[in-house]
Structure formats: structure tokens, C-alpha cells
């Protein structure tokens, strides 16, 4: 195949042909035009494995797809905090996509986990935009390295499934910029994805699919995105408005209905044809960018990819708790011990390793923890098993369930240690709906109580796509391994971790609250009558728990290891000022235990003197570092001005306000090991004074105060107006004060004063 001359190709297309290129030809392909050498491009889900459907296409995973490696979904991948590893997974995904002649893999999904109830949290990385953005960027780099396009989704503010195709996410600009857009900005700026997928929902009343500010002003003009924007499947409302706003490609096909709207709008003069040409140009550019992968194809080794899914999953599980019992923690288990271990829980035999919906992969194989534990156990270690419960039990199954629980409890009583596998059944969480609560199924909780009564030496192993409450039981068990959803190699990875073949190194990317009601979105999720108000503003996740000092079960960033780490003294050196400020942070981390391990060093920044509400601390850097037993690793970070800044809603730009900042390094947002306070010289943030500025604002500005005093010395002069009076009257806009009777300054005096104060404006 030869390369296309994009200009000549566009010039040679008819209006109808150009419009047709701006929508799919079917569920998964873009339109092709033979005579112009334009091939259809195949787009497939994503994000953690391919879902290339052979027949019976649909967009929520109902139809079978060709076998592919199921890597850990983002809930797991995110918990690895490992950029290099995520990039390797991206490369593997890209290789599989290439082998399947896929031009674009529909992922990663990097929406913020605003509420633990969101049915799609398993497809997202974190409640924090730095984690989502960094790991999303790593995945994009890996995929695109293979010549396959990535599609960063769902842009933007798609943080729930309830009414997802219509709901308006009502979010103030500062919150959007600092929380919900920041991850997308990072991926676009650093990894240059070839496509972005817009979300279904509205943002402040306008559909994302026709939002000019979102799709053009911010995405392209500010962040420099140079790829193609496609719709989520069925997200288009008004096609012509969408095209004008920057939505290049409608997916899937609407059988030409909306293409005809484009043609009609151009003919009627409602849409400039050059707008259509721009969208076509972007489609042809994607065509060229993916040419190599599409035409040369490739192959991959299924065994290698399965092994990669296993080693990846090892880094994704989070050891939440591992308290000593009789002087020693239960984990890791000793494979050579001469003791009976009982595995309880159907999830050990029938793993839940991915979520339902459009991301559902048909795996090449699946490992289960029970078989893998038995493989790893030495000959003297006996591993018994009891299912304990039915996954997705119905009320009709009550008697069967009780029988299973009773049998499991008997085995538990006779065992040395119990590995109790619990989790959310597939019907509890999925694309398409949100959960109502954060609880594990009642029959599993009953089983847990009975088992712990029979034998307190219990390790709980969880399988769930989003946080569950541990409030009723965490205190009663000595060890908890949060396995999230770990992909097809997850069972083997769990066995590796439980036996200490691998050392846990996953960390939470979402806080586990004690109660749902503690979550900051509570009361504002999932909204009502078509609107969801992001009332908590920038206080999302740990930003809120920490600001409100709310006790949590396990904080953001938390995760244990079988070794221990000590943080050495830290230095934080400021250079430059304002928008040119930088802070160099360095320290060391020492592995003080007996095994090699990996620590996730987290760097948080807090603005101690701010004119706006800011979170107590925000993650601004992280590094996952392997450290051998007894060894010390140097760590360094560079903070930029942006890491110190907030989005000023009136100046409408990022602003570094001068003053003291706390630089904190730790092992979670609640386990800060080193702190330093530094002073940063800020940039001017004064707003120009206007007639609508208040008396207090005028008096706070020395020049304005002097100007007022010169007009009416006795009233505004040092003795004329007391601090109490300013308190009382300070909120009156100057223009209204000037209109009051007997005020020494009249409305006509203001304009000349303002002109003097703001000579340039
Ligand atoms: C999902 C997308 C997915 C698309 C295609 C939509 O329902 O929201 O994430 O890529 O379907 O399957």
C-alpha cells in the first residue's frame, strides 16, 4: 500500500464522501472509500485486553470475541503504581492488536473514581489525577509503540453509570481543571495519543460530544492535541453541532442518517465545508499513522503474554493488613510447613478477574488460586478446599448456601490457617449501572463470621472491582490481601504472593472509607432529574478525607510488604519564583527487612498559605523503587510551578500564590515520613479593581486606598473609617456605596479613579 497524499485525497472527495468518512461503516469499522485508497479502520475495546468481535457485534460485551490475553483491569494495573510495567502491558496489548489488524485500541479509561459506587470503577485507575494520568500515559506509550492507536476515554467527567447517556455533570471550572481534566491533560501532553473518545454525558448542560470548549479550546488549543476525537458508542446528539465543536468521528454507524445532516448543513450554509475537511484530514492522518500496523500485521506468543499477565498481577494486589498472631504475621505462608491450610471460598476456584461490559475479554486461559496454591505447596503442606458459598446466590439457594458454609466452618476449625476468598459477584458491578452500597454479599459475611469464630487465623483474599466496606470485620481478621480484579494470571499471582514467591508491592489508588456516608460525593451521587452536582469541588477522595480529618479504613497510597522501609532525611530546595518556580526534592529509602521489595514513595504538596480552599495535601510525584534487603536507594523528584498552582477561576489561569508550602514524602497520604516547609515567591494575583469591587477590596489595595483618601480624606482616611466599619460595610460594591445619599464619593467619581488605578486596562 502506498501512502496517501492527504491534501489531494480531500480535494478529490465529494461532499457526501467526506461526510461518510465522519462516521462508522458498522459497529467497529470506520468508512472506507476504495477509489480513493482509503481503507476502513478497525477499532476494538480495550482497555486491558482485546475484544475483537467475530460476529454479533455489540458494545457491551454480549457477543463472543476472539481469544486475547486478559491483563489486569485498571483497578489492578493502577494499584501497581509501576509506569514501566504498565508500559510493558501496553506494548503487549499493541502487539495483540497488531496481530488482529486493529488500528485503534479503545483505551485507557482514565476517569476519576469519584464515588466507590461507580459501576465502572474497575476500568479506571484512581481517585487521583496524577496516578490516572501517569499510568494512562504509560499504557498509551506502550500501545502506540506498536503502531496501534490508543483512545483515551471517556472525556470527560464520566464518573458514574447512572443515566450516563444524558446526565449533566455540573462541575465548576477549577474542579474540572484540577481533578477531572488533569489526567487527560497529562496523557495528551506527555504521551500524544492518536485519538480521544468523548463521553456520553453532558458537562454543565452541554453534551461532551458537542462541547466546543472541551473538544477544541482546552483539548487542542491549550493542550496541543493533534489527533482525532471519536464519540463513545452512541454518544452523538446533534451531529452538526458536534462536528463544529471538534467531534471528528461518530461511532458506530448511524446508517448514514447523521452523515446526511452534515451534508444538508453544508448545503444550507449552516456549516462551513472547511470544518468537515478538518475532520476528514484527522481521519486520514489516523489512517496513515496506523498504516504500518494494519498492513504489516504481526504475531505474539500467548504463553509469554499469559506470563506477563501473571507477573503484572503480582504487583497489583494490595496487602492491606498482616498483623502478627502468636508473635508472627500469617503471611507469607511457608510452603514447606507441615500444616493443614484450608482454602475457603468459591472465588478461589472460580476466579473473578475482570468486570462486565464493553471491556470484557475472552481470555486465552485463566489461572485459579486454588490450583496454583496446590502447585506451589510442598509435599508436607495439605491444602483442603471448601467453596463456602455460591457466587451470585439467589434466595432459592439459601439451604444450599447454609450447607456449604457449615462444611467450610468444620474444615476451618481443623486447619492451621484459613485462606478465605471473598468478593463481589459479577452481578454486583458492571458497566451500565452503579452499586447502591459498598457491602459484600450477606451470605459471605455470615460465612466470614462463622469461620473466624471457628478459627481466628484467617487471611481474607478479596476479589472486587471497587472498594468494599470492611467495617464489620476488618478488626476480626489478622490479614487482608486486596486482590481487586487481576486478569487471567491473577490466580497464579495470588498464590505467588500468599506463599511469598513474590513480595506484595501494590498500593491503594483509592481510599477505603469506613462507611459509604464518609465518601465526599455522598449526597451528590448519582444526582437526580438529569443533573449530578459535583458539590464537593476539588475535595475528591483523600483530598477530602484528609481535609476533614475523617477516619478511614485504609488510606490512599497504603499497602504493606513482607519487608520494611525506612525513609532517610529529605532536602527540598526551591529555585525560581512564580510560574518559573521549581523544587528539587531528594531523600533515600532503605530496605530494613530481610527480603527484596519495592516501595512506592509518594510525594505530596500542601499550600499552607492560600487565599482559596486547597486540599491539605495532593499527590505530586511518585516512584516505585526496587530495593534489596539492607540496601539504600536514592530518590529524587522535581516539582514544577504547576505542582504548586491552583486554577484561578477569575483570572482563568494557573496561579502560584506566594507563601509557605509543605513538601511531604510518605508511604500513604496518612503515613508521612519526612516533611519540609519551604517558602515560594508567588506571582501577582491581584484582580483589577472595578466599580463592582467591594469597599474592602478597594481599601485593601494601598493605591486605591490612597486614591479614595484623596477624594474624601475625612471619610476614608486613617481615622475616618474604622476596621469595624469596614467589616460591616466592606462587602458593598463601590458603585452601590457611591449611590448612597451623603456618601462623600459619587458614581461619577469612580470611572476616573479606576482609569488611574488600571492605566493599561
Ligand atoms: C463504552 C466504551 C466502549 C464502547 C465500545 C461504550 O459503551 O462506554 O468504553 O469503548 O462502548 O464498546
General description of the model:
The protein is an alpha/beta fold and 761 residues long. The protein is built from 26 helices and 29 strands. The strands form eight sheets. Strands 9-16-15-14-12-13 form a six-stranded mixed β-sheet, with helices on both faces. A five-stranded parallel β-sheet has the order 1-2-3-5-8. Helix 17 (442-454) links the parallel strand 14 and strand 15. The protein starts with 5 loop residues before the first helix and ends with a helix. Beta-D-glucopyranose is lined by residues 45-46, 59-60, 106, 153, 232-233, 358.
Terminal Cα separation, in Å? 58 Å
Number of strands: 29
Beta-strand percent range: 15-25%
Percent of residues in helices comes to 25-40%
Q: Which spans have pLDDT < 50 for at least 5 consecutive residues?
A: none
Which overall shape is indicated by the principal axes computed on the Cα atoms? globular
Q: Main sheet, how many strands, which sense, barrel? A: 6 strands, mixed
SS-based structural class? alpha/beta
Bound compounds, each kind once, are: beta-D-glucopyranose
Mean pLDDT score:
95
Amino acid at each position: 500500500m502506498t501512502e496517501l497524499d492527504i491534501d489531494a485525497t480531500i480535494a478529490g472527495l465529494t461532499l457526501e464522501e467526506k461526510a461518510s468518512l465522519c462516521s462508522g461503516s458498522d459497529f467497529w469499522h470506520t468508512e472506507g472509500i476504495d477509489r480513493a485508497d482509503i481503507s476502513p479502520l478497525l477499532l476494538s475495546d480495550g482497555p486491558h485486553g482485546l475484544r475483537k468481535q467475530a460476529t454479533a457485534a455489540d458494545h457491551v460485551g454480549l457477543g463472543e470475541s476472539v481469544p486475547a490475553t486478559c491483563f489486569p483491569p485498571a483497578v489492578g494495573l493502577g494499584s501497581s503504581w509501576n509506569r514501566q510495567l504498565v508500559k510493558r502491558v501496553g506494548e503487549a496489548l499493541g502487539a495483540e492488536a497488531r496481530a488482529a489488524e486493529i488500528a485503534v485500541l479503545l483505551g485507557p479509561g482514565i476517569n476519576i473514581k469519584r464515588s466507590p459506587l461507580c459501576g465502572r470503577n474497575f476500568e479506571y485507575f484512581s481517585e487521583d489525577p496524577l496516578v490516572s494520568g501517569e499510568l494512562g500515559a504509560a499504557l498509551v506509550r506502550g500501545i502506540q509503540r506498536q503502531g496501534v492507536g490508543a483512545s483515551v476515554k471517556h472525556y470527560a467527567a464520566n464518573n458514574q453509570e447512572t443515566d450516563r447517556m444524558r446526565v449533566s455533570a455540573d462541575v465548576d471550572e477549577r474542579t474540572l481543571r484540577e481533578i477531572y481534566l488533569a489526567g487527560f491533560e497529562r496523557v495528551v501532553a506527555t504521551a500524544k495519543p492518536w485519538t480521544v473518545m468523548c463521553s456520553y454525558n453532558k458537562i454543565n448542560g452541554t453534551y461532551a460530544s458537542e462541547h466546543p470548549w472541551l473538544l477544541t479550546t482546552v483539548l487542542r488549543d491549550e493542550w496541543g492535541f493533534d489527533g482525532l476525537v471519536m464519540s463513545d458508542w452512541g454518544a452523538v446528539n446533534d451531529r452538526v453541532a458536534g462536528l463544529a465543536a471538534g467531534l471528528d468521528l461518530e461511532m458506530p454507524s448511524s446508517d448514514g442518517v447523521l452523515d446526511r445532516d452534515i451534508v444538508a448543513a453544508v448545503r444550507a450554509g449552516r456549516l462551513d465545508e472547511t470544518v468537515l475537511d478538518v475532520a476528514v484530514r484527522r481521519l486520514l492522518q489516523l489512517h496513515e499513522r496506523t498504516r504500518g500496523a494494519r498492513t504489516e500485521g504481526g504475531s505474539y506468543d500467548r504463553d509469554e503474554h499469559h506470563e506477563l499477565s501473571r507477573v503484572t498481577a503480582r504487583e497489583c494486589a494490595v496487602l492491606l493488613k498482616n498483623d502478627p498472631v502468636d508473635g508472627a504475621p500469617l503471611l507469607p505462608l511457608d510452603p514447606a510447613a507441615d500444616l493443614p491450610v484450608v482454602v475457603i471460598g468459591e472465588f478461589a476456584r472460580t476466579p473473578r478477574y475482570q468486570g462486565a461490559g464493553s471491556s470484557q475479554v475472552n481470555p486465552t486461559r485463566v489461572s485459579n488460586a486454588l490450583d496454583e496454591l496446590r502447585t506451589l505447596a510442598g509435599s508436607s503442606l495439605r491444602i483442603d478446599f471448601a467453596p463456602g458459598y455460591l457466587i451470585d446466590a439467589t434466595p432459592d439457594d439459601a439451604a444450599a448456601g447454609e450447607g456449604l458454609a457449615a462444611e467450610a466452618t468444620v474444615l476451618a476449625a481443623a486447619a492451621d490457617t484459613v485462606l478465605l476468598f471473598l468478593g463481589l459477584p459479577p452481578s454486583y458491578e458492571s458497566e451500565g449501572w452503579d452499586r447502591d452500597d459498598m457491602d459484600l454479599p450477606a451470605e459471605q459475611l455470615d460465612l466470614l463470621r462463622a469461620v473466624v469464630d471457628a478459627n481466628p487465623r484467617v487471611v481474607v483474599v478479596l476479589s472486587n472491582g471497587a472498594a468494599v466496606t470492611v467495617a464489620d470485620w476488618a478488626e476480626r481478621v489478622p490479614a487482608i490481601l486486596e486482590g481487586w480484579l487481576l486478569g487471567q494470571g491473577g490466580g497464579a499471582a495470588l498464590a505467588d504472593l500468599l506463599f511469598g514467591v513474590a513480595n506484595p508491592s501494590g498500593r491503594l489508588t483509592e481510599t477505603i472509607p469506613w462507611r459509604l456516608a464518609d465518601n465526599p460525593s455522598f449526597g451528590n451521587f448519582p444526582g437526580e432529574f438529569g443533573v449530578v452536582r459535583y458539590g464537593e469541588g476539588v475535595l475528591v477522595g483523600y483530598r477530602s478525607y484528609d481535609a476533614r480529618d475523617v477516619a478511614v479504613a485504609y488510606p490512599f497510597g497504603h499497602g504493606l510488604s513482607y519487608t520494611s522501609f525506612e525513609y532517610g532525611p529529605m532536602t527540598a530546595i526551591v529555585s525560581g519564583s512564580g510560574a518559573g518556580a521549581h523544587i528539587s526534592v531528594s531523600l533515600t529509602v532503605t530496605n530494613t527487612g530481610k527480603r527484596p521489595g519495592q516501595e512506592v514513595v509518594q510525594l505530596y504538596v500542601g499550600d499552607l498559605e492560600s487565599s482559596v480552599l486547597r486540599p491539605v495535601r495532593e499527590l505530586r510525584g511518585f516512584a516505585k523503587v526496587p530495593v534489596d534487603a539492607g540496601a539504600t536507594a536514592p530518590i529524587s523528584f522535581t516539582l514544577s510551578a504547576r505542582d504548586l498552582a491552583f486554577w484561578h477561576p477569575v483570572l482563568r489561569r494557573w496561579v502560584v500564590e506566594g507563601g509557605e508550602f509543605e513538601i511531604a514524602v510518605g508511604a500513604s497520604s496518612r503515613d508521612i515520613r519526612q516533611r519540609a516547609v519551604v517558602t515560594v515567591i508567588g506571582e501577582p494575583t491581584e484582580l483589577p479593581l472595578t466599580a463592582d469591587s467591594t469597599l474592602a477590596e478597594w481599601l485593601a489595595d494601598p493605591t486605591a486606598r490612597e486614591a479614595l483618601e484623596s477624594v474624601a480624606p475625612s471619610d476614608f482616611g486613617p481615622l475616618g473609617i474604622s476596621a469595624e466599619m469596614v467589616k460591616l460595610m466592606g462587602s458593598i460594591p463601590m458603585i452601590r456605596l457611591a449611590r448612597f445619599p451623603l456618601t462623600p464619593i459619587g458614581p461619577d467619581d469612580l470611572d476616573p479613579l479606576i482609569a488611574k488605578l488600571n492605566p493599561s486596562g
